[in-house]
Amino acid sequence: MTGLRYVYAVCRPLGAPLQAQLTGVAGAPAKSLAHHGLVAVVSEVPERDFSEEALRARLEDLDWLAATARAHQGVIDALTVVTTPLPLRLATVFRDDSGVRAMIESREEHFRQTLERLQGRVEWGVKVYVEPERSEEPAAAGAGRRPASGRDYLRQRRQESRAHEDRWQRAETFATRLHGRLSAFAEESRLHAPQNPALSGAAGQNVLNAAYLVPRAHSEEFVELVDRTKDEAPGLRVELTGPWAAYSFAGENPEGDAGGNP
């Protein structure tokens, strides 16, 4: 390798070589770098794009950032199939192999403890969205009609406000109950800030954005548990994503939305 080292994850020694066709950021093949009984999964990236100065500019380019995040996630997804990876932050770059080894040594205890805790476990993401109720659509369509009087206008606004408050109360009650149910099943859970629809592009208002750490062997039961809740709250949409590497439980703060939640 002659370029910089882009590090995707740290894991335990793999039982088999990485897939020869597994490519990551900048189209470079992913390779394993063993050190002190741990493995860093890395690839070579050009200094012109990944030096500290170049990265500051690149991270402002949303198209480049999205492509890099997809390539990064592709390697993590491939690793998740065969092992329990500890994902590192997007665009974690070192000058050479020695820099990667020094990073492993400086955080070796954390890596070992975290990999032990996450072994055989995956992350599932669950989001709940409030969608417009169908009964409100005709009213919205006729919102341009002038009320018969000021009193009628005030009454209409009170009814709309009451309906809005009732809908949000139902949504919050459902989300709290669902999170409690899923947390009781999972080994660990994390609540993330609700997603901004202008950034996520998802329809509706996000009222629950949570991640759950589940043994891989129990994933089917977790999925069934989520599926059984989807018809319990009309006007709400429940979305399940995963299984992901355990980003939310790894002690890292990766850029972007992984799944994951990954």
From TrEMBL:
PANTHER family: PROTEIN GVPL 2 (PTHR36852:SF1)
Keyword Transmembrane helix carried by entry: no
Localization per Swiss-Prot or TrEMBL: Gas vesicle
Keyword ATP-binding in annotation: no
Species this chain originates from: Streptomyces andamanensis
Alphabetically ordered keywords of this record: Gas vesicle
Entries under Pfam families matching the protein: GvpL_GvpF
UniProt family annotation: Belongs to the gas vesicle GvpF/GvpL family.
Protein name: GvpL/GvpF family gas vesicle protein
Subcellular location, principal: other
Biased composition range(s): Low complexity: 138-151
UniProt feature, compositional bias: Basic and acidic residues: 152-168
Annotated region (Disordered), positions in chain: 135-168
